[in-house]
Amino acid sequence: MTAATTEPAPLQPVASRPAAGFWASYGQAWVRTPGSALYLLAVFVLAMVSVGLLASLFWTGVGLLILVVGLPLIVLTLLIARGFGVADRFLLLLTGQPEIAEPEWNRDTPDATGFWVTLTRPIRGAHYWLYLVHGMIVNPIISTISFTLTVVWLSVGLGGLTYWFWGLFLPRSWNTEGSGGEWGHYVADFVPWLFGGWSSWAVEVALYLVAGILFTITMPWVLGGLARGHHAVAKGMLGRWDSDELAAEVRAEAAARGAAVHAEGVALRRLERDIHDGPQQRLVRLQMDLAALERRAESGDTDAAADLAREARGHAKAALDELRALSSGVAPPLLQDRGLAAALDAVATASPLWVQVDVDPAIDRAVSQEVARTIYFVVAELITNAVKHSGATGVTLRASLRRNAAGAPTHLDVWVVDNGRGGAVFTSGHGLEGLRERVAGLRGVLVVTSPVGGPTSAGAHIPLTVLP
Length: 468
Prior knowledge:
- Helix content is 65%, strand content 8%.
- By secondary structure, it is of the alpha+beta class.
- A hairpin with a 5-residue loop joins strand 2 and strand 3 (409-418).
- The protein is elongated.
């Protein structure tokens, strides 16, 4: 069996490209124009619906704050405002502008739970209030302006180019000479040097055509500019802040700490239970055998004393073997002295299964002691599970570093793949769940793919802090 870790390809230097010419840039603007027009028309409808709904709910909630129902109504308004903001960000994708990142909605620590904490979270979240202001005030104003300009440019541009056709069907007042409408006649009279001898109908068609050409030529720039304006406002009010990254980092650290504490607690309870059920019982029996041996020796029964001595020696050896087995779940001296690569190789060598090992020796410098201990324990447990439960005949162990474009290690990827019967699942309180919590304590993830019939593939992926 083999396992592969997907690694991002290193960034290649990009050759400088010549700046796009005017016509290429203009063509790209035209490609985005239909999406921009559709967005500018659709967002106006969205803004009118949002201002009507949000204003009604919000001010009703403010008026009812003296009653219990006012607070939940304001919370509902903020949640609906979030929905309108998300819809606006989704519609902005039509314009070809970059996607706006999702804000960090929940800044509470993972242990902050309860009804009132959950209920008041939108009220305590600045993003919710910005979404409310955007949906109730800002977006309706800018959408009205952009909608008006969009309709003007679309109607004059497209209508002017086709006026020669649809203008024939409009009711008009004809002059005594039957030469067309009044305003075309007035224009011809006002600039006779330009339209001298033209009929008023021909003047109207010419003027509409010129206006249509001008508005159509400028349409990509105008509609694109309006779309970029909406995108800039949405990015500032609906997008992710720099402080959101810090909040997400704090929550991830808190969650990792909680997972690590829970995993260590489970591991200690399991170790305590294993010691109680194994070596402790052996030592109690050894104590009883030694007491009986003492009595036989005092009575002069040497044969019985020799039998008891042999039994005591067997119990002592069994207790020692069990203690050694239990200590494999703790950091062994080999890990401290020679590093993670040597320790993983020792785990593979001690396994009764055939283990193919592919370990990057650079991991010893890249990983911290905490990461090394966790990975050692996880690999030892996974190989033990393969021996006990999978019916496998072989295991592949691979440990490699994932690097960024500068060559610095960013993640440690460890795969254990066996050719057993499969069917391994995460179960609360059992081995795989405990391993997942251990890895989560380092802000990593443990993924297990184990279809019935095999093979079972378990991968631990842990972010690294580059060591000096």
